[in-house]
Amino acid sequence: MVQAIINIDENTNRILNILKAKYGLKDKSQAIDIMAQQYEKELLEPELRPEYIKKMKKRQKEKAIEIKDFRKHFGLDKNV
Description:
This protein is mainly α.
């Protein structure tokens, strides 16, 4: 477990207190853990939208193209 001394504003402090009360937590560290878990679910690993899944399933059925020379096909022959 990592320990940290942090500075938070009044609004953040109120939010942490609300989370503590809502989930019956012992301290603000647990409230911060809950906030991080929710952030991870919503922003870092969002579920795929149904329209994206539909698009990818359609693409999966497309015929693949054969590339004989990858570097030439994608213009990677040039000297860097």
